[in-house]
Amino acid sequence: METASDFGAFKEKFTLPPTSSLALPLNSLTFAVKDIFDVEGYVTGFGNPDWARTHPVATSTAPIVLALLRAGATCLGKTIMDEMAYSINGENVHYGTPRNPCAPDRVPGGSSSGSAVAVGALLVDFSLGTDTGGSVRVPASYCGIFGFRPSHGAISESGVIPMAQSFDTVGWFARDPMVLSKVGHVLLQLPDVATVRPTRIIVAEDCFQLSSIPYDVVTQTVIKAIEKLYGGDVLKHEILGDYVKANVPSLKHFMTKENTDQVYNIPSLAALSSAMRLLQMYEFKNNHGEWVSAVKPNLGPGISERVSNALKTTGENIDICHSIKRELHDALTALLGDFGVLLIPTVPGPPPKLQTNTSELEIFRARAFSLLSIAGVSGFCQVSIPLGMYNNLPLSISLVARHGADKFLLHLVESLYGSIKE
């Protein structure tokens, strides 16, 4: 299992060499993959021993992994993940919890925990994860690295175990924006485009109220960098919750008294996250309910409750969830235009301590999903950007761009990060 040097990130180590030796974009770079991607000759374990035991060895490798090997990168193994991808914490009772390289007494974030730790601990140059509810963005933030969630449907999910198809994306981690961008160019198979200046950068004022870290601490360096690069005129401010409430009428079905009363909440975003979680449970049940009922797998705390709740889901309100997805997509497309971005916190604060009990985490999780559901439900692309440390804990911020603007967002991160670091 864990050696002193591998931070508990790997489930199994092996080497898949590049399949081509030409001068390629990812030459001499190494990567690891979450144990949700098929690799020929290995069982795809999905974070759970009972799953591994009841599933055969993969007979082919996920096309996305092959694309990276063809681009000159070397795969060094599979990483630990949260069971059945059903957590944003990163703790795994069966295989051990990968150690957060920024903050060893804190969770690494899930469900792509091992992939984030492998990058944060300098074990590989980049890694693959998946992001359904936040499983790339959260661990990227907690481990102090870049994490990219692409536009929904932009990257093939063939050879990847589904969690909930309405939200599943293949994402990736890197320590520097150049590598993040290079990997993006390979995975997104997009032609090179000229760098475009953003038309507006919208600060979602209310979203920063959800964070336990003072607004200025999170935004100061980024706003300075934006003003220096693009001038102050590009900055706009928006109360995103009000905009969403006014422009996503179907959300009213999820606006409960509970969602409106709580002090830490933005009611419309809390409703958004309720819709996201309901549709996610429904699709998870359709994908894996039969297996769970037949095998009765041993699942860790938090996960077992979530899975059993998912199995009780009915088709009620599922059509409304799909309407909300469409309405939010259109509303945010109108807000951002072609080359606008939204500035929000990735998560509501620093990573929680290891083994914090689930009830204590409830408020934090609720706030987290309010933020994560913005890109999740709209299908937009999002990047989490590390901003160094605050009180010895990693700090990050996120940029969200319209569906299909992935290349633009990758270019923007490169320019902006250069200026942040100056």
What can be said about this structure in brief?
The chain is an alpha/beta fold. The protein has helices spanning 49-53, 63-70, 113-120, 137-142, 177-188, 205-209, 215-230, 240-247, 257-261, 267-295, 303-311, 318-336, 358-378, 406-421, and strands spanning 10-16, 30-34, 74-79, 126-131, 146-149, 169-174, 200-204, 235-238, 340-344, 381-390, 393-401. It contains 14 helices and 11 strands.
Features:
422 residues, single chain, globular, alpha/beta, eleven-stranded mixed sheet, 14 helices, 16% strand
Q: Can you walk me through this structure?
A:
Helices cover 40% and strands 16% of the residues. By secondary structure, it is α/β, with parallel strands linked by helices. An 11-stranded mixed sheet has the order 1-3-2-4-6-5-10-11-9-7-8, sandwiched between helices. The longest helix has 29 residues, at 267-295. The chain starts with 9 loop residues before the first strand and ends with a helix. The model has no long low-confidence stretch (mean pLDDT 95).
